[in-house]
Amino acid sequence: MSKIKSLYQMLAVIGVFGAISISAQAKKISDLAGREVTIPAQIDRVYTFSHSFAIVTALAPEKLVGLPHPFKLKPEYMAYLPTPVRKLPQMSVGQDMNLEQVKAAKIDLAVGWNTAAFQREQLKQLGRVDVPAVLVSVDKLSDYPATFRFLGKVLGKAERGEKLAGYIETTSAKLTKAVSMIPAKDKVRVYYAESMDGLTSQCGEADRAEVIRLAGAVNALACSDLPSATAVPADIESSNVTAGMETLLKINPDVIVTRSPATTDLINNDPRWAKLKAVKAHNVYPIPSLPFNWFDRPPSFMRVMGAQWLANRLYPSVYPFDLEKETKEFYKLFFQVDLDKAAINKLLNKTS
User: Fold this and answer.
1) How many Å apart are CA 213 and CA 216, to the nearest integer?
2) Within 10 A of 236 (CB to CB), how many other CB atoms are there?
3) Which of 161, 191, 221 is the last residue of a domain?
4) Residue 327 resides in a domain
5) Would you say 273 and 197 are in contact if contact means Cβ atoms under 8 Å apart?
6) Per-residue pLDDT reduced to its tens digit, 109-141
7) Predicted pLDDT at 92
8) Residue ranges in the chain modelled with pLDDT below 70
9) For the chain, what percentages of helix, strand and coil (3-state, to nearest 5) are there?
10) Would the pTM count as exceeding 0.70?
11) In DSSP terms, which residues pair with 285 in a beta bridge?
12) Torsion of CA 79, 85, 89, 94, to 10 degrees
């Protein structure tokens, strides 16, 4: 009888220590969507999606397990990315997620973003392979300080997360103060040529065009400017709209910024665009985009550079700064790379 009692006691002790061990390996947190999530205490392997990839690339590149679609590692990206990212394999995400590949990657944590669509589609997929996920905020530049601080704590990089958050807050405040002095009548009207043909854009107050507002300018394409047959989605914060040449001639923007240098060339050489004020004045500028676009697609903290770049382009006396110096310091801080003169010129689309 005493042997049986001793056995029960031993099992109880094992059970207690087992529970302590499991507890030590996991913890509960609340993510930025307010969800309670159980995550490992130690996180070394992180799976990301299009909108969260840039965040972890800046914060903890050594923890990434792969490159998410649609990002593909091109030779021209190498100089701008942290060393650990340069040899990562391609990972499937979204509706094409390869569950076997995800499972085999032994992922500790996935990082997504706080939208109904992501929660409805991606979380369900991750649940099938028991990968815990936290959601962060990515829609606006002002979301990123909280996102960096939160993920910094989750990934054991709190000090670095604070540095990155601090840069965004300090720089944004400086820029906001400067452009707030611009009278409404003097604000430049900017059209964002998002697609390769230049005709897809974002209208009005869309989040995807927020760099224009952050730079103290006005989005030249109001949603009311679109043809009546054009349906403007209710979720205008993240939806594309198509502006025809007739609409562009009507709004006649002061400046055009393009997502691709190829679009800049098209606009400058296509006679259909030649009547526009921006084209006549040679005010068509390609947005810097290495390794992530400074404006959009994907939305990211790179907008803090995009807003400064555009403000300086539009109002050099209001927001004077050394773009090359600031770019070099930004990439050193966020991507831990030391850009040389050639890399900076390429990034800024300078021909010499």
Assistant:
1) 5
2) 17
3) 161
4) no
5) no
6) 999 999 888 888 889 889 889 999 999 999 999
7) 85
8) 1-24, 95, 229-239, 351-352
9) 50, 15, 40
10) yes
11) 257
12) -110
Task: Report how many domains make up the chain.
Answer: 2
User: What is the residue range of 37's domain?
Assistant: 24-161
Question: Using the 8-state DSSP alphabet, how is residue 116 labeled?
Answer: H
> What are 31's two structure tokens?
């993510």
Q: Which helix (H) or strand (E) holds 128?
A: helix 116-128
Rg (CA), the chain: 24
Neighbours of 276 (CB within 10 A): 21
Shared domain check, 291 and 190: yes
* 129 and 262 together in one domain: no
| 270: its two tokens | 């296509």
Distances (CA, A) of 78 to 22, 95, 216, 225, 303: 40, 28, 33, 41, 21
| pLDDT at residue number 240 | 85
Please tell me the distance from the alpha carbon of residue 251 to that of residue 292, in angstroms, as a whole number: 29
User: How far does CA 26 lie from the centroid of its chain?
Assistant: 29
Per-residue confidence (pLDDT) for residue 227, from 0 to 100 = 81
Query: Rounded to an integer, what distance in angstroms lies between the CA atom of residue 286 and that of residue 69?
Result: 24
Supply angle C-alpha 125, 126, 128, rounded to 5: 70
Residues 67 and 138 in one domain: yes
Please, what sign has the CA dihedral across residues 56, 51, 114, 332?
Answer: positive
User: pLDDT tens digit string along 11-40?
Assistant: 454 454 444 344 457 899 999 999 999 999
Query: Could you tell me if residue 140 is left (phi over 0), alpha (psi between -120 and 50 degrees) or otherwise beta?
Result: beta
Looking at the DSSP bridge assignments, the partners of residue 156 are none
Q: Of 134, 161, 188, which one is at a domain's C-terminal end?
A: 161
Asked if 191 and 169 touch (Cβ cutoff 8 Å), the reply is no
Angle formed by the axes of helices 158-179 and 50-59, to 10°? 110
Please state, as a whole number, how many other Cβ atoms lie within 10 Å of the Cβ of residue 173. Answer: 10
| Contact criterion met (CB below 8 Å) for 111 and 48 | yes
State how far the Cα of 51 lies from the Cα of 137, in Å rounded to an integer.
10
Sort strands 26-30 and 36-40 into parallel, antiparallel or unpaired: antiparallel
Query: What six digits make up the tokens of 169?
Result: 């807050």
